[in-house]
Specification:
CATH superfamily: Transmembrane di-heme cytochromes, Chain C
CATH topology: Fumarate Reductase Cytochrome B subunit
Number of helices: 11
Shape: elongated
Radius of gyration: 21 Å
Structural class: mainly alpha
Strand order of the largest sheet: 2-1-3
Bound molecules: protoporphyrin IX containing FE
Number of strands: 3
Oligomer: single chain
Protein backbone atom coordinates (compact mmCIF):
# COMPACT_ATOMS: atom_id res chain seq x y z
CA UNK A 1 0.00 0.00 0.00
CA UNK A 2 1.48 3.34 -0.98
CA UNK A 3 1.71 6.05 1.62
CA UNK A 4 -0.73 8.96 1.87
CA UNK A 5 -0.07 12.05 -0.19
CA UNK A 6 -1.01 15.52 1.04
CA UNK A 7 -2.08 18.20 -1.39
CA UNK A 8 -0.58 21.56 -0.40
CA UNK A 9 -0.81 23.75 -3.48
CA UNK A 10 -3.84 24.02 -5.71
CA UNK A 11 -3.65 24.34 -9.48
CA UNK A 12 -3.59 28.14 -9.40
CA UNK A 13 -0.72 28.23 -6.94
CA UNK A 14 1.31 25.85 -9.05
CA UNK A 15 0.64 27.84 -12.20
CA UNK A 16 1.56 31.05 -10.40
CA UNK A 17 4.83 29.58 -9.23
CA UNK A 18 5.72 28.14 -12.64
CA UNK A 19 4.92 31.37 -14.45
CA UNK A 20 6.84 33.43 -11.90
CA UNK A 21 9.82 31.13 -12.22
CA UNK A 22 9.97 31.60 -16.01
CA UNK A 23 9.65 35.39 -15.68
CA UNK A 24 12.38 35.59 -13.03
CA UNK A 25 14.84 33.46 -14.97
CA UNK A 26 14.35 35.51 -18.13
CA UNK A 27 14.63 38.78 -16.17
CA UNK A 28 17.83 37.68 -14.45
CA UNK A 29 19.52 36.29 -17.55
CA UNK A 30 18.59 39.27 -19.73
CA UNK A 31 19.00 41.98 -17.07
CA UNK A 32 22.38 41.05 -15.61
CA UNK A 33 24.18 41.13 -18.99
CA UNK A 34 22.90 44.69 -19.42
CA UNK A 35 24.19 45.68 -16.00
CA UNK A 36 27.60 44.04 -16.49
CA UNK A 37 27.90 44.73 -20.20
CA UNK A 38 31.41 46.16 -19.74
CA UNK A 39 32.75 42.94 -18.23
CA UNK A 40 34.89 40.69 -20.35
CA UNK A 41 32.94 37.97 -22.17
CA UNK A 42 29.48 39.42 -21.45
CA UNK A 43 29.02 40.90 -24.94
CA UNK A 44 29.90 37.54 -26.49
CA UNK A 45 27.56 35.70 -24.11
CA UNK A 46 24.60 37.99 -24.77
CA UNK A 47 25.40 37.75 -28.49
CA UNK A 48 24.10 34.17 -28.30
CA UNK A 49 20.54 35.47 -27.95
CA UNK A 50 21.00 38.28 -30.51
CA UNK A 51 22.76 40.99 -28.52
CA UNK A 52 21.80 43.71 -26.06
CA UNK A 53 18.82 44.95 -28.09
CA UNK A 54 17.17 41.52 -28.08
CA UNK A 55 18.03 41.12 -24.38
CA UNK A 56 16.31 44.46 -23.71
CA UNK A 57 13.17 43.38 -25.58
CA UNK A 58 13.06 39.99 -23.81
CA UNK A 59 13.59 41.79 -20.50
CA UNK A 60 10.59 44.03 -21.11
CA UNK A 61 8.39 41.08 -22.13
CA UNK A 62 9.36 39.17 -18.97
CA UNK A 63 8.85 42.37 -16.94
CA UNK A 64 5.27 42.55 -18.24
CA UNK A 65 4.96 38.90 -17.16
CA UNK A 66 6.20 39.74 -13.67
CA UNK A 67 3.69 42.58 -13.38
CA UNK A 68 0.93 40.21 -14.46
CA UNK A 69 2.05 37.56 -12.00
CA UNK A 70 1.89 40.14 -9.18
CA UNK A 71 -1.66 41.13 -10.22
CA UNK A 72 -2.59 37.44 -10.54
CA UNK A 73 -1.38 36.75 -7.02
CA UNK A 74 -3.23 39.71 -5.52
CA UNK A 75 -6.45 38.68 -7.30
CA UNK A 76 -5.94 35.16 -6.02
CA UNK A 77 -5.58 36.37 -2.44
CA UNK A 78 -8.61 38.64 -2.78
CA UNK A 79 -10.70 35.76 -4.12
CA UNK A 80 -9.68 33.59 -1.20
CA UNK A 81 -10.53 36.37 1.20
CA UNK A 82 -13.93 36.77 -0.42
CA UNK A 83 -14.48 33.03 0.01
CA UNK A 84 -13.33 33.35 3.60
CA UNK A 85 -10.55 30.81 3.19
CA UNK A 86 -7.53 33.09 3.07
CA UNK A 87 -4.89 31.37 5.13
CA UNK A 88 -2.66 33.21 7.56
CA UNK A 89 0.00 30.53 7.40
CA UNK A 90 2.49 32.85 5.69
CA UNK A 91 2.19 35.55 8.33
CA UNK A 92 5.38 35.84 10.42
CA UNK A 93 5.00 34.86 14.08
CA UNK A 94 7.09 34.79 17.23
CA UNK A 95 7.52 31.06 16.67
CA UNK A 96 9.49 31.85 13.50
CA UNK A 97 12.06 33.80 15.50
CA UNK A 98 12.31 30.96 18.00
CA UNK A 99 12.61 28.44 15.15
CA UNK A 100 15.39 30.49 13.57
CA UNK A 101 17.27 30.52 16.87
CA UNK A 102 16.69 26.80 17.46
CA UNK A 103 17.78 25.96 13.93
CA UNK A 104 21.04 27.81 14.45
CA UNK A 105 21.58 25.96 17.73
CA UNK A 106 20.79 22.65 15.99
CA UNK A 107 23.36 23.44 13.32
CA UNK A 108 26.17 23.90 15.82
CA UNK A 109 25.24 21.46 18.61
CA UNK A 110 25.06 17.74 17.94
CA UNK A 111 22.56 16.93 20.67
CA UNK A 112 20.21 19.86 20.03
CA UNK A 113 16.77 18.86 18.67
CA UNK A 114 15.62 20.20 15.32
CA UNK A 115 12.66 22.59 15.69
CA UNK A 116 9.30 21.32 14.46
CA UNK A 117 8.10 23.40 11.51
CA UNK A 118 4.51 24.12 10.62
CA UNK A 119 3.05 24.69 7.17
CA UNK A 120 5.70 27.25 6.28
CA UNK A 121 8.97 27.57 8.11
CA UNK A 122 10.79 30.83 8.82
CA UNK A 123 12.98 30.48 5.73
CA UNK A 124 9.99 30.01 3.43
CA UNK A 125 8.21 32.96 4.98
CA UNK A 126 11.30 35.14 4.62
CA UNK A 127 11.59 34.18 0.95
CA UNK A 128 7.92 34.88 0.32
CA UNK A 129 7.98 38.36 1.84
CA UNK A 130 11.37 39.18 0.32
CA UNK A 131 9.91 38.28 -3.04
CA UNK A 132 6.93 40.51 -2.30
CA UNK A 133 8.85 43.69 -1.52
CA UNK A 134 11.52 42.88 -4.08
CA UNK A 135 8.88 42.63 -6.79
CA UNK A 136 7.36 45.97 -5.81
CA UNK A 137 10.80 47.64 -5.93
CA UNK A 138 11.72 46.06 -9.27
CA UNK A 139 8.40 47.00 -10.86
CA UNK A 140 8.54 50.63 -9.71
CA UNK A 141 12.20 51.19 -10.63
CA UNK A 142 11.83 49.13 -13.82
CA UNK A 143 8.88 51.26 -14.98
CA UNK A 144 10.99 54.39 -14.37
CA UNK A 145 13.75 52.93 -16.57
CA UNK A 146 11.23 51.81 -19.17
CA UNK A 147 9.30 55.09 -19.38
CA UNK A 148 11.78 57.80 -18.28
CA UNK A 149 9.94 60.63 -20.02
CA UNK A 150 6.66 59.83 -18.29
CA UNK A 151 8.48 59.22 -15.00
CA UNK A 152 10.14 62.65 -15.27
CA UNK A 153 6.77 64.14 -14.34
CA UNK A 154 7.25 62.74 -10.84
CA UNK A 155 11.01 62.33 -10.38
CA UNK A 156 13.98 64.54 -11.24
CA UNK A 157 17.29 63.51 -12.80
CA UNK A 158 18.63 62.23 -9.50
CA UNK A 159 15.50 60.10 -9.10
CA UNK A 160 16.05 58.57 -12.53
CA UNK A 161 19.67 57.78 -11.66
CA UNK A 162 18.61 56.33 -8.31
CA UNK A 163 16.05 54.11 -9.99
CA UNK A 164 18.79 52.68 -12.21
CA UNK A 165 21.14 52.08 -9.27
CA UNK A 166 18.44 50.52 -7.09
CA UNK A 167 17.19 48.36 -9.97
CA UNK A 168 20.71 47.12 -10.67
CA UNK A 169 21.63 46.28 -7.06
CA UNK A 170 18.27 44.76 -6.23
CA UNK A 171 18.68 42.63 -9.36
CA UNK A 172 21.94 41.20 -8.02
CA UNK A 173 20.26 40.53 -4.68
CA UNK A 174 17.31 38.86 -6.43
CA UNK A 175 19.62 36.72 -8.57
CA UNK A 176 21.61 35.54 -5.55
CA UNK A 177 18.44 34.93 -3.51
CA UNK A 178 16.76 32.93 -6.24
CA UNK A 179 19.67 31.10 -7.84
CA UNK A 180 21.55 30.29 -4.63
CA UNK A 181 19.33 30.61 -1.57
CA UNK A 182 16.00 29.45 -2.98
CA UNK A 183 17.42 26.76 -5.26
CA UNK A 184 19.48 25.35 -2.40
CA UNK A 185 16.79 25.42 0.27
CA UNK A 186 13.91 24.29 -1.89
CA UNK A 187 15.63 21.75 -4.13
CA UNK A 188 19.32 21.02 -3.79
CA UNK A 189 19.88 20.37 -0.09
CA UNK A 190 20.66 16.79 0.79
CA UNK A 191 17.25 15.95 2.28
CA UNK A 192 15.36 17.22 -0.80
CA UNK A 193 17.73 16.60 -3.72
CA UNK A 194 17.30 16.43 -6.64
CA UNK A 195 14.09 18.43 -6.44
CA UNK A 196 11.04 19.26 -4.40
CA UNK A 197 8.34 18.21 -6.86
CA UNK A 198 5.65 20.24 -5.15
CA UNK A 199 5.92 23.09 -7.63
CA UNK A 200 4.73 20.55 -10.26
CA UNK A 201 2.49 18.15 -8.32
CA UNK A 202 1.33 20.42 -5.51
CA UNK A 203 1.69 17.56 -3.05
CA UNK A 204 4.03 15.98 -0.53
CA UNK A 205 4.12 12.43 0.78
CA UNK A 206 3.47 11.68 4.44
CA UNK A 207 7.19 10.99 4.88
CA UNK A 208 8.09 14.38 3.41
CA UNK A 209 5.44 16.07 5.53
CA UNK A 210 6.76 14.38 8.67
CA UNK A 211 10.26 15.54 7.85
CA UNK A 212 9.58 19.11 6.70
CA UNK A 213 6.20 20.08 8.19
CA UNK A 214 5.55 17.82 11.20
CA UNK A 215 3.19 20.23 12.96
CA UNK A 216 1.03 20.59 9.89
CA UNK A 217 0.95 16.83 9.41
CA UNK A 218 -0.06 16.33 13.03
CA UNK A 219 -2.92 18.79 12.60
CA UNK A 220 -4.09 17.12 9.40
CA UNK A 221 -3.99 13.68 10.99
CA UNK A 222 -5.96 14.89 14.00
CA UNK A 223 -8.52 16.51 11.71
CA UNK A 224 -8.77 13.34 9.64
CA UNK A 225 -9.28 11.25 12.77
CA UNK A 226 -11.97 13.67 13.97
CA UNK A 227 -13.64 13.57 10.55
CA UNK A 228 -13.67 9.75 10.68
CA UNK A 229 -15.56 9.87 13.95
CA UNK A 230 -18.05 12.51 12.82
CA UNK A 231 -21.26 11.52 11.03
CA UNK A 232 -20.93 11.86 7.20
CA UNK A 233 -21.98 15.20 5.71
CA UNK A 234 -22.29 16.08 2.02
CA UNK A 235 -19.04 17.49 0.64
CA UNK A 236 -19.29 21.08 -0.59
CA UNK A 237 -18.82 21.81 -4.28
CA UNK A 238 -15.22 22.63 -5.06
CA UNK A 239 -15.75 24.60 -8.19
CA UNK A 240 -12.17 25.82 -8.32
CA UNK A 241 -10.91 22.31 -8.78
CA UNK A 242 -13.72 21.26 -11.03
CA UNK A 243 -15.07 18.53 -8.80
CA UNK A 244 -16.56 18.11 -5.40
CA UNK A 245 -13.82 17.54 -2.88
CA UNK A 246 -13.43 17.38 0.84
CA UNK A 247 -10.46 19.63 0.34
CA UNK A 248 -12.67 22.66 0.05
CA UNK A 249 -13.70 22.06 3.60
CA UNK A 250 -10.17 21.42 4.66
CA UNK A 251 -9.17 24.85 3.47
CA UNK A 252 -11.94 26.70 5.01
CA UNK A 253 -11.29 28.52 8.22
CA UNK A 254 -13.74 26.26 9.92
CA UNK A 255 -13.16 23.16 7.93
CA UNK A 256 -11.46 20.07 9.18
CA UNK A 257 -8.17 19.36 7.42
CA UNK A 258 -7.41 16.91 4.76
CA UNK A 259 -8.10 13.36 5.61
CA UNK A 260 -5.32 11.21 4.33
CA UNK A 261 -6.36 8.70 1.75
CA UNK A 262 -3.87 5.90 1.71
CA UNK A 263 -2.54 5.53 -1.76
CA UNK A 264 -4.32 8.60 -2.97
CA UNK A 265 -3.95 12.32 -2.84
CA UNK A 266 -5.12 13.83 0.38
CA UNK A 267 -7.89 16.31 0.16
CA UNK A 268 -5.92 19.40 -0.66
CA UNK A 269 -6.66 22.30 1.50
CA UNK A 270 -6.84 25.30 -0.71
CA UNK A 271 -3.95 27.61 -0.79
CA UNK A 272 -3.99 30.61 1.30
CA UNK A 273 -1.75 33.47 1.89
CA UNK A 274 0.45 30.70 1.26
CA UNK A 275 -0.24 31.69 -2.03
CA UNK A 276 3.27 31.67 -1.93
CA UNK A 277 4.47 29.69 -4.32
CA UNK A 278 4.48 29.65 -0.95
CA UNK A 279 1.51 27.78 0.17
CA UNK A 280 -0.75 27.91 3.02
CA UNK A 281 -1.37 26.09 6.13
CA UNK A 282 -2.03 26.91 9.66
CA UNK A 283 0.52 27.69 12.23
CA UNK A 284 1.02 25.94 15.44
CA UNK A 285 -1.91 26.73 17.60
CA UNK A 286 -4.32 27.31 14.74
CA UNK A 287 -7.44 25.26 14.86
CA UNK A 288 -7.35 22.07 12.88
CA UNK A 289 -8.64 22.65 9.44
CA UNK A 290 -7.25 26.09 9.08
CA UNK A 291 -4.42 24.51 7.24
CA UNK A 292 -4.75 25.38 3.68
CA UNK A 293 -2.66 24.18 1.09
CA UNK A 294 -0.22 26.45 -0.51
CA UNK A 295 2.04 29.40 -0.69
CA UNK A 296 4.21 31.50 -3.00
CA UNK A 297 4.41 34.86 -4.12
CA UNK A 298 3.77 36.90 -6.88
C1 LIG B 1 13.48 39.90 -11.00
C2 LIG B 1 13.22 41.04 -11.62
C3 LIG B 1 14.20 41.86 -12.41
C4 LIG B 1 15.56 41.74 -12.54
C5 LIG B 1 16.45 40.70 -11.90
C6 LIG B 1 16.01 42.81 -13.40
C7 LIG B 1 17.30 43.07 -13.73
C8 LIG B 1 17.74 44.17 -14.47
C9 LIG B 1 19.10 44.58 -14.63
C10 LIG B 1 20.29 43.93 -13.94
C11 LIG B 1 19.12 45.64 -15.46
C12 LIG B 1 20.34 46.45 -15.88
C13 LIG B 1 20.42 47.67 -14.98
C14 LIG B 1 21.63 48.53 -15.28
O1 LIG B 1 21.96 48.69 -16.44
O2 LIG B 1 22.24 49.05 -14.32
C15 LIG B 1 17.77 45.90 -15.84
C16 LIG B 1 17.40 46.86 -16.72
C17 LIG B 1 16.09 47.16 -17.03
N1 LIG B 1 14.98 46.63 -16.43
FE1 LIG B 1 14.96 45.11 -15.12
N2 LIG B 1 14.92 43.54 -13.79
C18 LIG B 1 13.81 43.00 -13.21
C19 LIG B 1 12.52 43.44 -13.32
C20 LIG B 1 12.13 44.48 -14.16
C21 LIG B 1 10.81 44.96 -14.27
C22 LIG B 1 9.62 44.42 -13.47
C23 LIG B 1 10.82 45.96 -15.22
C24 LIG B 1 9.71 46.80 -15.72
C25 LIG B 1 8.56 46.96 -15.15
C26 LIG B 1 12.17 46.09 -15.67
C27 LIG B 1 12.59 46.99 -16.62
C28 LIG B 1 13.89 47.22 -16.98
C29 LIG B 1 14.30 48.13 -18.01
C30 LIG B 1 13.39 48.96 -18.90
C31 LIG B 1 15.68 48.09 -18.05
C32 LIG B 1 16.61 48.84 -19.02
C33 LIG B 1 16.83 47.86 -20.15
C34 LIG B 1 17.69 48.41 -21.26
O3 LIG B 1 18.64 49.16 -20.96
O4 LIG B 1 17.41 48.03 -22.40
N3 LIG B 1 12.95 45.19 -15.01
N4 LIG B 1 16.95 44.99 -15.20
Amino acid sequence: MSEPVYQRWDVSQRRQHQFLMVCCFVLIFTGLPLRFAHQRGVAEAVGVIGGATVAGVLHRIAAAGLIWSAIWHVLYLLRRRRRRNLSTSMVPRVKDLLDARDTLVWLVRDEAPHPLYDRYNFIEKFEYWAMMWGTVIMIITGLVLWFPVAAARWVDGLGLQLAKVIHGYEAVLAAVSILLWHMYHAHLRADVFPMNWMWLTGSLTATEMRHHHPLELERLEQAAAAADEAPPTPAPEDTEHGSPSPQAEADSPTGGGAAPAPGGVQPPPEPGLDAGPGGAGGQAGEPAGSTDSEGGHA
